[in-house]
């Protein structure tokens, strides 16, 4: 495998994580043909290199947190002074967007229009 091909796969790995925001490490390993421990090591390396930032939980998930979201959390802590873990967790739900960028957000009007169009639309929407 050449250097360019290796860099391409690494970029694909990073993009995969960033586009999904939250990934299950085992699923990520399966997607890229790696062992789960190799995925964990790769994520740690990418974090050290500044290419990824986020949180790995004890349930086998990695949550990508963008630089801007990190700054928002830091600013909140700085503004508030002392912050409890529970308070920070509640506020983090507002400061960190866990929806994948590729997911389409539908308004209530869009959903109502889909309902009015009938089952055909529902079948198409559920197929996506």
TrEMBL record:
GO terms for cellular component: endoplasmic reticulum membrane. GO terms for molecular function: ubiquitin-like protein ligase binding. Keywords: Endoplasmic reticulum, Membrane, Transmembrane, Transmembrane helix, Ubl conjugation pathway. It is found in: Endoplasmic reticulum membrane. It is a single-pass membrane protein. SMART domains: DDRGK. The keyword Isomerase does not apply. Its main location: endoplasmic reticulum. Belongs to the DDRGK1 family. Substrate adapter for ufmylation, the covalent attachment of the ubiquitin-like modifier UFM1 to substrate proteins. PANTHER family: DDRGK DOMAIN-CONTAINING PROTEIN 1. This is DDRGK domain-containing protein 1. The lineage of its organism: Eukaryota, Viridiplantae, Chlorophyta, Pyramimonadophyceae, Pyramimonadales.
